[in-house]
């Protein structure tokens, strides 16, 4: 075990196979910790609640941890096997892959003796991948002033939930809904029709997870209440139709909310909504060399209100081509700059 917490376990070759090259099997022990807002779960202490759906094991309201539990289980199976002929094997278990490969970067020269390394971080059994997608995280920060909300305003909370989400690398090509983009779409529509105040907004969490849930707390004049309720019904029907295949459990809820005295200033709200609307999300380019391979993509991952009157929009860009990844990140940064972030 090294200082970072990475673990290396060596298994000698079986008799007659000592001459073979040492093979390193590598996986990571951390997972993306995501849960639905209506689920109570402590990832540090609670066991994942599982269910069997046909041939698949799934988690109830949380991520499962198959990334990279599959790889870890595979290595442990090799270590425990007594009926397998093999050369020298080194099983490497790294930490903190999901937060930026910090475990891998902390590895010191000479820790491993192997000449061949197989990374077991894939969901496709029986397929071998050569290469890796590079990634860049781009964050836009908005600074806002607090303003008072006038009297005689109706306060409401709009929530987008029930989306499948998924990994921004593995699942980005599936056309699933992005809760941040869907929420922003309705807020933009509402702001264009009446005098709307935005008091609070939150969506998504991790840079490598497609956001499944998002919400906002807003206020509109009392006389706009009935129009707003009619608009949310029409909007919901349209969005449900758009995602009827990719996200059939999509739900959009509008409910009354306790009045707030303060909101985000109008200028910032306008720039924020336009920026999120303009930010690209999803597949940007497919590979010209390998059929059905996503070459370049981007994920509008999170919208968070932070300390000191700031709102941070987290995004993540991926590509199998370094220059294309940089170009995608520059595209996202340009949108942020045009929006005054």
From TrEMBL:
Q: NCBIfam families this protein is in? A: aa-his-dipept (TIGR01893)
Q: What is this protein called?
A: Cytosol non-specific dipeptidase
Q: Which cofactor does it need?
A: Zn(2+); Co(2+)
Per the UniProt entry, the Enzyme Commission number(s) are: 3.4.13.18
Q: Which GO terms describe its cellular component?
A: cytosol
Enzyme's top EC category: hydrolase
Keyword set, alphabetical order: Cobalt, Dipeptidase, Hydrolase, Metal-binding, Metalloprotease, Protease, Zinc
Q: Which residues form the Peptidase M20 dimerisation domain?
A: 159-244
């Amino acid at each position: 075990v090294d200082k970072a917490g990475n673990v290396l376990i060596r298994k000698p070759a079986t008799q007659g196979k000592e001459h073979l090259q040492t093979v390193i099997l590598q996986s990571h022990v951390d997972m993306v910790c995501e849960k639905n807002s209506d689920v109570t779960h402590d990832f540090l202490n609670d066991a994942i609640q599982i269910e069997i759906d046909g041939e698949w094991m799934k988690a109830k309201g949380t991520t499962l941890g198959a990334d990279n539990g599959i790889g870890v289980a595979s290595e442990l199976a090799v270590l425990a096997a007594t009926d397998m002929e093999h050369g020298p094997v080194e099983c490497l278990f790294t930490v903190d892959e999901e937060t930026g490969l910090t475990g891998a970067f902390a590895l010191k020269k000479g820790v491993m003796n192997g000449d061949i390394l197989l990374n077991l971080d894939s969901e496709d059994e029986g397929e071998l991948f050569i290469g890796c997608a590079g990634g860049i995280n781009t964050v836009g920060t908005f600074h806002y002033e607090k303003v008072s909300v006038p009297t005689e305003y109706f306060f409401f909370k709009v929530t987008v939930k029930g989306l499948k989400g998924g990994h921004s690398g593995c699942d980005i090509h599936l056309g699933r809904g992005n809760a941040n983009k869907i929420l922003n779409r309705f807020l933009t529509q509402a702001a264009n029709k009446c005098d709307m105040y935005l008091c609070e907004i939150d969506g998504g969490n991790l840079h490598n997870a497609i956001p499944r849930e998002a919400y906002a707390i807003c206020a509109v004049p009392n006389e706009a209440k009935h129009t707003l309720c009619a608009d949310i019904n029409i909007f919901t029907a349209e969005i449900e139709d758009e995602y009827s295949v990719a996200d059939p459990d999509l739900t959009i809820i509008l409910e009354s909310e306790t009045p707030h005295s303060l909101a985000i200033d109008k200028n910032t709200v306008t720039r924020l909504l336009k920026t999120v609307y303009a930010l690209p999300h999803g597949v940007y380019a497919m590979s010209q060399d390998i059929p059905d391979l996503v070459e370049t993509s981007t994920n509008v991952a999170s919208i968070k209100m932070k300390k000191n009157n700031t709102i941070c929009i987290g995004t993540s860009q991926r590509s199998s081509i370094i220059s294309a990844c940089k170009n995608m990140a520059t595209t996202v940064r340009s949108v942020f700059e045009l929006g005054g972030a």
